[in-house]
Structures are given as C-alpha cells and as structure tokens.
Specification:
Layout: H1 11-16, H2 18-34, H3 41-54, E1 58-59, E2 71-75, E3 78-80, E4 94-103, E5 106-115, H4 122-146, H5 154-165, E6 170-171, E7 177-179, E8 186-190, E9 207-210, E10 213-215, E11 221-223, E12 230-232, E13 238-240, E14 243-248, E15 251-254, H6 262-265
Antiparallel strand pairs: 1-4, 2-4, 3-12, 4-5, 6-10, 7-8, 7-9, 9-14, 10-13, 11-12, 14-15
Helix pairs in contact: 2-3, 4-5
Length: 276
C-alpha cells in the first residue's frame, strides 16, 4: 500500500500540535484529581471542559456530528464512547475518560482509566486495577516500539505481545488508534494487534494516537441504544488508555503527556526529545 505524502506533518505543523496536546493532558489531569465515588459523569465532563478552556482550547469531541460533550465516560463494561450524564460513580467502578482539545486548528486526543476504591470488594478493585495497569503498560510498550520501528504496524505487535504475556485478556479489534492532526481522526489506522500489512514508514512528521482497549473477558461488543456507548457482550470490565505521539527529526514526543512521555518511557531506556 502506498501512503500519501500528506500523512507526514512539517516541523512547523508538529510545533502547532504541542499546545492542543497539553490542553488535552490538562483536562485528564483535572479529572484524575477530582474523580471519586458519588460524582456524576456529567460533573467530570464539566471539569474537563473548564481545564481545556483555561488552556486556550476548546473541545474537539463536540465537533463530532451528534455529540455534545467534552469527554467520553465509559464505566465498567462500557469500553468507549460513553456519554456523560446523571450516572453516579460507585465504589469499585472502573471509569475510562477519553478527552480531546482543538487549538488553532490542531487536535489532541488521549484517554485514561481510573479504578475507584472499595474496601468492601478488594478482589474486584485489584482485578480491575490490574486490567487498567496492563492496558496502560501496553500503551507504553507501543509507544516505545514506535521510537525504533521501521513501519507503524510494529506498534500493534508490541501491544499484543505484552497484553497476552500478562494473562487471559481480550483485545478489542473493532476499535483502533488513528492518525491525528487537522482532524481528530486521520489516516493511518493504528492497530493494537498483529496484522499482515507493514503500515506506513515511521519517519519524521508521523503523528498518531495509540489507544489499546482491553477487556477482562471476550472482545465482542455492542453499541447501546444511545447510539454511542460501546459495551462488552459478556458484561465484563474494560479499560482504555491513549496518547497522541509525534515522530520528529530528533526522536519522539508524547504530545498528551506534560513530560513528553519521559516517565513512561524511562523503563525502556528511551528519552523523549522536545519538538524543536
């Protein structure tokens, strides 16, 4: 497959993607500081929006036709695209928050999962926390592979290998990562598992959102009656982690991490380099 030259951003365009990435990170930092049992998912939506506005951006999720919120909030068996509303978070819930910002016409996109404490069900909390940890670490495995890959689909190999090494987890195949730039969802597709095609060449200018979605049971899902929320068929819990990453002439930079990915990449001996 031949990929368009426009797949790769110029150095100037990469620099413009730093601010929306930081605004996206700020929204998730704000949610992480606030999320607790007893809160509604709509309250978290307001917190995320305020953080994005304070950073000078606006929600890019609201630009999706028919979607009217800043975040997606997916709880327990919900994997992605959950709509914020009056649902009150309960002790022991696992909630995945996906957020994105647009600033000066450029986009950021990231997600994190949080497990709420529940001293009455320690085994449930431990199982869900491990699910979240495995998903997060698989994301960093993919980002680390991106730093040395020749072709993009090596990322999916690294993600799948790590997840399968950690236990019997399901990897969603119907929902994958993507390129990002002027639009939140661009080419190329970013798989979280092995595929036969190599994918585009990894070289300066490539910007992708890597987002593994992992479940405790099988990978089969359905869309709820709201037309958005994706949930597991077997009702088992799910986790979702995501970062937007730029490849540039001096290395890689995680646009949606305030440290550029330094902490997450340190165990791999990789030091991310700011975009000059």
């Amino acid at each position: 497959m031949v990929f368009k030259r426009s797949l790769y951003k110029s150095p100037a365009q990469l620099r413009l993607m730093v601010a929306p990435g930081l605004a996206t990170a700020a929204s998730l930092d704000a949610v992480q500081s606030a999320v607790a049992a007893g809160m509604s998912t709509l309250e978290l939506d307001t917190i995320a929006e305020q953080a994005i506005l304070a950073a000078g951006g606006s929600s890019n999720f609201k630009l999706e036709q028919g979607y009217h919120h800043t975040i997606c909030s997916s709880v327990n068996d919900e994997v992605v695209h959950g709509i914020p509303g009056g649902r009150i978070l309960q002790p022991g819930d696992i909630v995945s928050i996906d957020s994105g910002a647009i600033l000066d016409g450029w986009n950021g996109d990231a997600a994190r999962s949080f497990v709420l404490p529940d001293p009455t069900r320690p085994e449930v909390v431990a199982e869900r926390q491990k699910l979240s940890d495995v998903t997060e670490q698989s994301l960093w495995q993919g980002i680390a592979r991106l730093a040395s890959a020749n072709h993009l689909n090596e990322v999916g190999e690294a993600i799948e290998d790590y997840i399968l090494s950690q236990g019997e987890y399901g990897i969603l195949t119907d929902y994958i990562g993507h390129g990002i730039g002027r639009r939140m969802h661009e080419e190329p597709p970013v798989f979280n598992y092995r595929v036969r095609a190599k994918g585009p060449e990894v070289k300066p200018g490539l910007v992708v959102a890597i987002e593994p979605m992992v479940v405790l049971g099988g990978p089969d899902t359905y869309v709820k009656d709201d037309g958005w929320t994706v949930a597991t068929e077997d009702g088992k819990a799910a986790a979702h982690w995501e970062h937007s990453i730029a490849v540039h002439k001096d290395g890689i930079w995680v646009l949606t991490a305030t440290d550029g990915g330094a902490a997450g990449l340190a165990p791999f001996g990789i030091t991310p380099t700011p975009i000059a």
